[in-house]
């Protein structure tokens, strides 16, 4: 694997007389050290999403027979399931492992059946997403860059959505390890605004020592963690977790879904070209139309009628109009997500509210019921 060429201090198992891994002989130093790390995370208030298998392997662990995999899992579960801050992740990028889909399903069933504490359980993908409808899966763990579909996943499966890999803040030659600090912070805002969750990773290269935080820890170098902390403070101030506001189908897309008679009535009052626009939209598949609308989507979420969050992402609007319920009055704040500032724009407002914006990227608007 790139940038990870050293040998670990310990391995999970000892070897037998023939030099093969003996899953019946766990290396106690390895497991003691792992337990110490889990306890450290717990003291910091961090859940340990423990990856049980991964394909990036030059030692032969990914090629163990399934019977050995189950012996290993039995030991893991018996030894670690008493930790309160454990989650089980069946794999990192399960789909590029040498295991078959049937193997993975057996692994999932084994973990769920033998963990009497019923810790959270997921499986991380590289390409095809793990079937999140399976009863043992508690949440969606996904690798994707298609942020506008996160809300759709939550609506489809009725389970929390965790964006476990959205590329890394760093400077590597590879596309997955070279997004800017600003873009990493943006990806968090896109996710949380629609009720999903996001995870951070960093891949700034140390040319002399080939050390990446992503693989070996150390000190973070990027600028996004501070901004993610700022976002966390805002989320913790809200009355409840955010849920996505539905995508509003307006204009030609809305008219295209109407009966012909109703369309003709609208055409009689519209510019002549509008008929052609509606005709073009009506030829799109439902999936293509969804993606077209979603790609221009304003990332927005709400907590009932208590608060509304709008993230403008890379848009540089000078003003916008939001519609707030008339059953409450609201204080409307402008949030500069990069410079980490709040500014009250309006108070005691509801209904259609026009707000002045600074014409810069990375702005958000938060409306809170008074």
Keywords:
3-stranded parallel beta sheet, alpha/beta, TIM Barrel, 370 residues, 6-stranded antiparallel beta sheet
Structural notes for this entry:
The protein has 370 residues and is α/β, with parallel strands linked by helices. It folds into two domains: 13-237, Glycosidases (TIM Barrel, Alpha-Beta Barrel), CATH 3.20.20; 248-296, no CATH class. Helix content is 32%, strand content 23%. It has a six-stranded antiparallel beta sheet with strand order 11-12-13-18-15-16, with helices on one face. α2 (66-80) runs parallel beside α3 (101-114) and α5 packs parallel to α7.
Question: Which secondary structure elements does this structure contain, and how are they paired or packed?
Answer:
Elements: E1 13-15, E2 21-26, H1 28-43, E3 48-53, H2 66-80, E4 86-91, H3 101-114, E5 121-122, E6 140-143, H4 150-157, E7 161-165, E8 169-170, H5 181-193, E9 197-198, E10 202-203, H6 213-216, H7 224-237, E11 243-244, H8 251-256, H9 260-267, H10 273-282, H11 286-295, E12 299-303, E13 307-311, E14 319-324, E15 330-336, E16 341-349, E17 351-356, E18 363-369
Parallel strand pairs: 3-4, 4-5, 6-7, 7-9, 8-10
Antiparallel strand pairs: 1-2, 11-12, 12-13, 13-18, 14-17, 15-16, 15-18
Helix pairs in contact: 2-3, 5-7
